[in-house]
Automatic annotation (TrEMBL), chain A:
InterPro entries in the cross-refs: DAD/Ost2 (IPR003038)
Family, per entry: Belongs to the DAD/OST2 family.
Lineage: Eukaryota, Viridiplantae, Chlorophyta, Chloropicophyceae, Chloropicales
Protein name, per record: Dolichyl-diphosphooligosaccharide--protein glycosyltransferase subunit DAD1
Membrane-protein topology: Multi-pass membrane protein
Protein role: Subunit of the oligosaccharyl transferase (OST) complex that catalyzes the initial transfer of a defined glycan (Glc(3)Man(9)GlcNAc(2) in eukaryotes) from the lipid carrier dolichol-pyrophosphate to an asparagine residue within an Asn-X-Ser/Thr consensus motif in nascent polypeptide chains, the first step in protein N-glycosylation. N-glycosylation occurs cotranslationally and the complex associates with the Sec61 complex at the channel-forming translocon complex that mediates protein translocation across the endoplasmic reticulum (ER). All subunits are required for a maximal enzyme activity.
Summary of subunit composition and partner proteins: Component of the oligosaccharyltransferase (OST) complex.
Pathway info: Protein modification; protein glycosylation
Organism: Chloropicon primus
Automatic annotation (TrEMBL), chain B:
Statement: the UniProt record of this protein carries the keyword Lyase: no
Organism: Chloropicon primus
OST48 N-terminal domain boundaries: 22-275
Domain OST48 middle positions: 300-432
Topology relative to the membrane: Single-pass type I membrane protein
Pfam families to which the protein is assigned, alphabetical: OST48_MD, OST48_N
Annotated protein name in UniProt: Dolichyl-diphosphooligosaccharide--protein glycosyltransferase 48 kDa subunit
Amino acid sequence: MLGDLKEIVQVFSREYSKTPKLLKIVDCFILYALTVAALQFAYMNLFGSFPYNAFLGGFFCTLGFAVLTVCFRMQIDVTQTEGADKLGNLEKVFADYCVACVFLFFVSISYVG
Amino acid sequence: MVLLADPIVAADPVVEGQARDTLVILEDSLGSMESTHGAFLRLLRERAEGYGGRVTLKHHESIAAKGSGFALRRWGRWTHDSVVVLAPSLTSIGGEKASEVLGDFVESGRSAFLVGSPTMSGEVRDLAKRFGVAFHDGSAKALDLFENRGGDGEVIRATNYGGLGDTSSVLRAGTKSKPLLWSGVGAYLDPRNPLASQAVAGHSTTFCPTKKGFVSKKKGLRKFTGTDVSLVSVVQARNNARVVVTGSLSMLSDEFMADGETSNRELSVDVTDWVLGYKSVLRHGRIEHSLLEGMGERGETKDRYRIKDKLAVSMKVEEWSAAKQEWLPFEGEDLQLEFTMLDPHLRKTFSKDAEGTFVAEVVAPDVYGVFKFVVDYNSLGYSYIHVEEQVPIRPFRHDEYERFIAAAYPYYASIFSTMAAFFLFGFSVLYTK
């Protein structure tokens, strides 16, 4: 059992080390956003849901950021997407991602009050 | 202009009629009534003089006919403010049937004292029935073979003053401590009628016999036995008109009143004072409200308040003091305020401030809508009070919610840290080679 787990982790880290550096950076940010979301959820459970709108604003801001970043990652992943390695495509995808994120932050800020 | 100067609203004709004009209809000629019921007539005159009223005495036969020159209503206006009917054989007044004209009289908010006897007319019975007091059929007197004077059971020594409860709004405590000598026809009040109550009721041994002197087995007398027999009944109509009905003319006679051991004199005073509006008459002002804590200036009266605002509510209620001839703050303790939207959302007993004004502090409920303050006071013997004041309650406006709450700082931080992460992300993605 423990050996299986060890093997899974080993296989995962071996395969993961093959991913490009850019995607690893992106994964870092996704992990960060998910962690913050989880922390907020724990905080809300511990201290009560009084400013519930603020919780929703903060929680969905981080979740939304994670989701958008996942979408961004899917589009620049050479191994998954065809034509992703074309020159200038990174900038185009990033522009889309920027618009979506700015909109998300705007909504979140309005919502937390 | 008078109304503008005095915010207190006179509730009913009883209040307006402090200087009231009382018609007393007599069974016999004045001379013979003076000899049998002189004390009661004197009492009526003295109270009227002392309190600024007027008493007119008429023999019932002299006002019965249309051509008698007397009319209780003339061109749609009432010529008197209250009527004391000491005439059980009264049938008509000014050509009109007594039950109709006096029924309308009470419906207009005026008061009547109705006295029956074993020889009373059908009109008087009908009239009593209109007020919810059903006299026992037949002419036999109510009997009590245990609590009586003289042994034959016809003169009842009534001590059951329980029908009105503890209140002294009609009968004073001193009156209730002595027995009442009473001889006449018993009555029955329908328990479904909330407006009529027994001021003096029979004992458990009292009954209204059929002619032979006992209760017949065939025709049960369930209604007219025991404490269900009402000796003196008081009725206060919804328009605050007051009516007293008793089946005993002899209750008011000199013979019964002369006895100091009995309450006949005190009871006559109490009952006439009550029915003529010399006591237990209330008037009230508007419901005043102002803000204590919440949105806006403290002490400000607004046409609408916000949910959870703390409000101060006050109302003036005054009782007429005939002895002092002025309105004094009402002494009652059980006045309640309701804050109602379909149902009462809160109900609170008023407390009193130094000036005797009824005050209450309430917190508006956490529900918005069109509310009203309601004071609904139906205390036995006192004038009814029903006042409403509409006060809408609004929710928080969008910019009135609390901001920058300490508990929400982690959420704010998370958003700004995510924004920072976004910038960092941009740089690292675009400049990673």
